[in-house]
Specification:
about 210 residues, alpha+beta, Arc Repressor Mutant, subunit A, Alpha-Beta Plaits, 2 domains, four-stranded antiparallel β-sheet
Amino acid sequence: MLSLKIGIIVLLAAIIIRHYPLNNVIAMKETAKQKILLLLLSGVALGFSRTPRGYFKILKGIPEAWREIERSRLYRIVGEFYNGRLVDYKENKDGFVNIVLTKEGERKALKFKLDEMEIKKPKRWDGEWRIVIFDILEKFKKAREALRRKLRELGFLELQKSVFVLPYECEDEINFIVEIFLIRPWVRFIRAKNFTNEEQLKIKFYLV
């Protein structure tokens, strides 16, 4: 198994890096990194086969999503992920090698997924308010502030300290957020048809 991993790393190290303006390289690379992690997280397989010389190359029959990433960039980033312990290599009985996320890699991919999150606004409001209430321990202050920032990014309005409201469906998104931040015990999600002074909120959310 060790020789297998060394062979893959040698192959990755041998790829010639093309020359682009530095800013373009960084932007393209970060976008590709994000896409690779999210594809692996969603279960889109990426496999290698052994060549007669003992090297490894990406299988020809990989899903279309992988083909959208430049081959040399894909090799290079996967190598970086392996060195950073974000991915590992799993050899099958048939000799093929699959790239899999490590626990740290899954965590990183979920963070990317969180950064991309958006709440969809329906054409017509269903008349329900979604309220998030939390009382998170001081020792988890960073997670508490991260939650507060994310709720604001998603368009929530803060009714009072640690109480946020949004008129659109978002329960799945909130469940995802609290799992990522590991704050499930201290967060509550509430649905309400009406409450005091809601007319002011309707104006702020352009519902009237």
